[in-house]
Every structure is written in C-alpha cells, then in structure tokens.
Amino acid sequence: MADMNTPLAMTVIGWYLGAASFRPALTCGGAYLSALLRLCAIPCAVLGILWLCRPPEPAMAVATVVAASAPVAALTTMFAARYERDVAVSVGLVSLTTLLSILTMPPLVGCALWLFGR
Question: pTM (2 decimals)?
Fold first, then answer.
C-alpha cells in the first residue's frame, strides 16, 4: 500500500492538471505571496534556526532544509477536491511552486551544504 502513495498522488494531480486553467492562480496576488513564503521565507527561517542550534549531524540539517524548501504538495489539490474548495487555484499553486522551486531550491540547499560542512 505504501508503494502506491506517490503514484496515486501524481495520478490525481495529473487528472486535475489536465482539466485546469492556471489563470486563477497566476492572476492572484496571494498565490505569489504564498509561493514566496513557502519557497523562500520558511526555508530561510529553518536554515537560520538550524544554524543557531548547531545540530550534531550535518546531514540531518541539510535534509531538513531540503524538506522545508520543497514545493507545495499535490495533496493540497486532493484536499481541495475532497472538501469542495477551489481546485483550480490549488492546482495552480502546486504548479507555480513546483516551477519556482527550480530556481529557489538549489541556492537554499547549497547554502545549507556550505553552512553545515558537507
């Protein structure tokens, strides 16, 4: 059952992506603000907190920064559909943050690797 977790989420998000219009998410200013917070502010805060705490295992700190800088999960769309919310906006947010994470994730992970000596 655990092996179906990722393929099921990708199938559901793909199904919604096929019928979605990205205009609601791309024209919403809140989408860009939430993407900025999710992809930049939160990972930078996590990086700062980890730097202050000086974790004993550098790999654990880097893995935490990787998880914090990851894009919005496809589960967002599944919850939006389940609870009858705006699925088009959630699909747009998942797509927007996934595309933007291509630009934000490498510098953040590189900074974590540099700070924690890997």
Answer: 0.77
